[in-house]
Amino acid sequence: MRRALAFLLVALSPLLLECKPTCQAANQSGLAEGLCPVKLSRVPSDCVTVRVWMTADELQKEPRVDVLSAINETFRPVRVKQPPPAAAARHRVERVSCSDPRSEPLWEFVYECVRAAADGAVSVSYSAASTRCTVSDLTPNFAVSVDAPSKSITVTVAPGRKVHVRLCFQGADSCSELPSQPFATVDPSSSPSVRLVAPYLPPCLCVEVYYTDLDASRRKKCVISAELTDAADVLRHARQELFESSLRWLSDCALKELPARPSASLCWRNARVCTPLPNSTLQESGGDDGDYNTLIFNTSAVDKHPQMCVVFSLQGSKNESCPFHSDMTSWEVSVGRGRQSLSVHVASEEPAGFSAQLCVLEETGCTATGPVHVLTEDAQVQVPPRLAGTPCVQVWQSRPALNGRRILCPDYTHHRWGLCAAAAVVVLVLVLLGVFFQRLTRTGAAGWLYIHTPVLLVCSSEHPAHVSAACALASVLQGELGARVHVSLWAQTSQRRAGPGVADLGPVPWLHGQWEAVRKAQGTVLIIWSPEAKDAYGAAAVEEGEDAGAGVDAGHEAGEKLLRCNEEEATGRKDWEAPGSTAVTGTVFAAALFRLQGALRRSKAPGVAIVYFQGLGHGGDIPRALRVPRYCLPQDFRGLIQELEGARSPLARRCWPRLLSKVLSIWLAQKLASRLQTLLPRSGLDPAEPEPAEPEPRPERPLAARRPSSQVP
């Protein structure tokens, strides 16, 4: 038992000696004039150091220092230590000798490591002949919990008065406040806890809590362990300061508190990545002993190009910084492509030697291959024909030697992006064209392809297929091309009538009026030919005793004969019935043929064309005497549209509109063919099939066999 007690006394004796109060001469800097000469400080937060200043006169009269903490103690500083009186011994008053051979005007009583009470309070009273004062160091009691994933810290304050809570970085001398992190005020009576979010969790992050009183003592707890610290966060929040020959790395924490000591190396930044450079580790110059937060790296022999960057590493994490500027380098290099070589050109403001070497770019760096080339100004670096990877050139200053290599890869990435951009442009153009033609097929060709002049359609048969085909053609011309189409079939109905119709004027006057109106508007008359028209034209010529293809005079006589006969039929005097025709259709056709023959006789037949449909007629059915343009529909529809547009259209004088007009004409021809597909015989829509033989002459007498009853003016 005695041995254990002796061992305990020996173990505790250094601590007892360390916490023993002392008294020595002091200077004037620690004493504030007119204030209580007592100062309390906490280092660490649960240990209080007591300092009391007294003059030589006060020391002669044995002042009294009362320390109220976990253990209440009383001290009397004395000039020369003497045996304590009996009263002092009974009250446990400890005398502290202030012995010094010099006679100083100011003395300092120091009592270190005073343990605070349960509530964290320490109170010191000083009593002297001229001064009596009390100073207390009361700090709040609180608990801290850390949530590492959310980087949050929850502080719970014990019941009592309001307190301020803040986060700070503990440095060598003080705990600095976090940027943009003001303190939070906590009222334990209403809400004793507060949650603080830190930008990251370094080991020096502390929680400081103090009462709202002015100059209140602060209590601090640093609870972040090295395991909770993320090395990437430490690197990301560090700062760099560039000097002429050094680069300083500054952390929020002292170096000795970090999980490891950071290192620095060089890399060359290309478009998106920074390629590590071999043998480029930066050396520390004038390193700290760990008590401060600064590392100094030597950059006096570094190639200071804007693309030369510094990579800081800590426990496998990396952070990149490019601190150099364009005015800090004295030479430039460029690389061009050859067939099996790379040309290197170096321009330097100062005399220097340079070297170059071929390398293959990879994720971990640029692997050197081939010989090293000594450069003067221009040089050629040969590239092997079967080199795997992206061939690049690394160039560095070799005399005087600089740390760092520039890696240049000529235009490979640029060319690939160029091909991608070209492909994207082509796809975009195709999409736009597709959208354009889709909208075009929905809205029609009006506005892009437009016929400004009127069109007069003259039918030659009342056969249902012929009438349906003529109506389909009129619908396309009017609906898709915006043409004003006049047809005798439409003019007979009130729905289509825009003026006096056939029933109001009669077939012949209506035709002559429409013909003159179209001619004055420089429009086009389209005569739709049919087998019935061929029969009627031929019968009229035979009756006159002449061949229908003998010439213009014979054709004119046949047309006049046909007109008189059909006009007679329109008045009700008829001797026979022509198959597939009515009085109105036949009379209008005969009048149109008469006008055409008259124009051809005067050698003036502009604005007249003859059309026929595949499967409903043939080009051989049209007499040679009718020397006007002929079109077979739908295969010649594009030529017909050009005939209807004429040279007056603005689309005919420009290259791109002409191309667009051609495309739209083809599309309209297909649209017309799809409409005619259900109306015409299917064999007639196939251009590869030969035209059938001409039909046998009819036994009945045609329309032209009638004798005219009146002359047409």
Fraction in helix: 25-40%
CATH class of the largest domain: Alpha Beta
CATH fold annotation of the largest domain: Rossmann fold
Shape descriptor: elongated
Largest sheet: 5 strands, mixed
Q: Would you count the extended β strands for me?
A: 36
Strand content: 25-35%
CATH architecture of the largest domain: 3-Layer(aba) Sandwich
Put simply, the count of helices is 14
Estimated structural class: alpha+beta
Pick out the low-confidence regions. Answer: 5-17, 544-556, 565-581, 647-653, 682-713
Radius of gyration: 56 Å
**Integer average pLDDT:** 76
Subcellular location: Cell membrane; Membrane
Domain Interleukin-17 receptor C/E N-terminal: 193-398
Keywords: Cell membrane, Glycoprotein, Inflammatory response, Membrane, Receptor, Signal, Transmembrane, Transmembrane helix
Pfam families: IL17_R_N, SEFIR
Features:
Immunoglobulin-like, alpha+beta
SSE blueprint:
Layout lengths: L1 H17 L3 E4 L12 E5 L4 E9 H5 L3 E5 L4 E6 L7 H5 L2 E5 L8 E10 L5 E7 L4 E7 L3 E6 L4 E6 L5 E8 L4 E3 L6 E3 L6 E5 L7 E7 L6 E4 L9 H6 L2 E4 L3 E5 L12 E7 L4 E8 L12 E5 L9 E7 L2 E5 L9 E7 L3 E8 L4 E10 L2 E11 L2 E5 L7 E10 L6 E3 L3 H32 L11 E4 L5 H16 L5 E3 H4 L10 H4 L1 H14 L3 E5 L2 H13 L8 H19 L12 H19 L6 E6 L16 E4 L3 H9 L9 H22 L37
Parallel strand pairs: 5-6, 32-33, 32-34, 34-35, 35-36
Antiparallel strand pairs: 1-7, 2-3, 3-7, 4-5, 4-8, 8-9, 10-11, 11-15, 12-13, 12-14, 12-16, 16-17, 18-19, 19-22, 20-21, 20-23, 23-24, 25-26, 26-29, 27-28, 27-30, 30-31
Helix pairs in contact: 6-14, 9-12, 10-11, 11-12
InterPro entries: IL-17_rcpt-like, IL-17_rcpt_C/E_N, SEFIR_dom
GO cellular component, one term: plasma membrane
Membrane topology: Single-pass membrane protein; Single-pass type I membrane protein
